[in-house]
Amino acid sequence: MAVDSSSPDPSTCENNAKALQFIEEMTSNVDSVQERVLAEILCRNSDTEYLKQYKLQGPTDREIFKAKIPVVTYEDIQPQIQRIANGDRSAIFSTYPVSEFLTSSGTSAGERKLMPTIQEELDRRRLLYSLLMPVMNLYVPGMDKGKALNFLFVKAETKTPSGLLARPVLTSYYKSEHFKNRPYDPYNVYTSPDETILCADSFQSMYSQMLCGLIMREEVLRVGAVFASGLLRAIRFLQVNWKQLVEDISSGTLNPKVTDPSVRECMSKILKPNSELAEFITQQCSEDNWEGIIKRIWPNTKYLEVIITGAMAQYIPTLEYYSAGLPMASTMYASSECYFGLNLKPMCKPSDVCYTIMPNMGYFEFLPQEPSASCDSPPRLLDLADVEVGKEYELVITTYSGLYRYRVGDILRVTGFYNKAPQFRFIRRKNVLLSIDSDKTDEAELQKGIENASSLLREFKTSVVEYTSYAETKTIPGHYVIYWELLVQDPANSPTNEVLNQCCLAIEESLNTVYRQGRVADNSIGPLEIRVVKNDTFEELMDYAISRGASINQYKVPRCVSFTPIMELLDSRVVSKHFSPSLPHWTPERRR
């Protein structure tokens, strides 16, 4: 993993070297590590109800494991999970006691998923976190010479009937002793005191974290949030609240809206009157043009640390606008079910981001995505070491916490190998987004359509800030509706009605042949519609989701909506409607 760069700080050189050596060992011995991991999981959980149910007790070879244990979804195991949530303390999935439940992000339809976890999983998460900066240091040296402005948040926990906590995985980690009592690491010094991160009130947390970031602006070397959308929310927060923040900096007195005692106490040690800084922030934020605002306020920032893969990819142009084109680093791949791996080339272009799954984190299998495969003979799952470059797979996991052959729902494409470890690009979530008739449009297809349509807006210096969609079936025939929030940099030269109509057609031209056949030949699908909504509509949508229990840390705008209150909110903010002016191109496929 040698990269031409200056040497790390001597005080941390040994730790960095150990981390990089660990990566080398894991990626060079993928299959043997996977074999050991599965044996450990099966041995320790041999007395569980779940494994006994399938007459599998104790370590066994992989083929017997695959023959006896079925591949499952959340719905398949939800009854057992609910028993644990209701107070059943028997060894259902794991012989280790369930320490808490990790919840899904809460943005999908229906109830949030509850994932039982065990205490030692925190060690595995901390291990993966410990590998990130040693890798980054190979590409961006000197990150131990300053601080990170990372907007990190927790959510107030809920409790299941059993008394076990249910909370997002990041809330679990930030509230753990692993995080609160972490040893000093010069590569991970945050501008935000722990008290501001651990404050459950999202406004007070964001306000105090932003204030700290402004006060320490010249020390900041990287700016980030978990998801790209979270960083854009922080920028929007600054746009709305900069006058109050400036007043605090000028007077050295914290805004009375911040009432959390621990936050006020820690801020009293940081916040001092600084009229020069207040004047500078006023000068920058009072301008109408916010292009490059991140680089202007935090001039020493070397990169943005945000996830920009999958649905987050559509935020890239807006982040480039606000950051003056700073590199964006998607450093790791993780979920509530399991932490998977990391990006070994974190400074690559967004389109080239791929993740190397670490074989020690769990046992991984891969379900080939082959549309032409016969339903009578489902494809055989492959081991981590056996996947093929260029092929797409659904990720299936077996974890120390007691998930066995569980379908995560992520579709990954193999882009290459590092040593013997495959590297994957995140393609999409498996769930289909839109369907009117026999058509099925997924997230990746819709995203591509949005990108192609957005190219028509460039000459008007306009970009798509946010979008969602739904299948309008009340009309006959039904049609796709796309809600767009636009960033118009020059209102005097905004896109015309004709251009926005052409955007509808551009999206349709990007969709699959089944959709286009429905439009052209079958007349089963009506013209695609774009509804442009007022600025900040999607901020309101997120506020609504958070009020209903979504985590601010893990919130992602749903790419398809159907919940009536959300539909009513979106429709109440529509400022214009546009339809595809003609039929997309379609010709019958030649079949052999």
What tags apply to this protein structure?
alpha+beta; 592 residues; 4-stranded mixed β-sheet
Can you walk me through this structure?
By secondary structure, the chain is an alpha+beta fold. The chain folds into 3 domains: 196 residues, no CATH class; 161 residues, no CATH class; 144 residues. The protein has 20 helices and 22 strands. The strands form 5 sheets. An 8-stranded antiparallel beta sheet has the order 9-10-11-16-15-14-12-13. β4 and β5 form a beta hairpin. It is globular.
Summarize, please:
The chain is α+β, with helices and mostly antiparallel strands and 592 residues long.
- Distance between termini? 47 Å
Largest sheet, described in full? 8 strands, antiparallel
Number of domains: 3
Portion of residues in helices?
25-40%
Number of separate strands: 22
What's the tally of helices? 20
Spatial ordering of strands, largest sheet? 9-10-11-16-15-14-12-13
Report the portion of residues in β strands.
Answer: 15-25%
Q: How does the overall form come out from the CA principal axes? A: globular
Protein name: Indole-3-acetic acid-amido synthetase GH3.1
GO molecular function: acid-amino acid ligase activity
Keywords: Ligase
InterPro entries: GH3, GH3_C, GH3_M
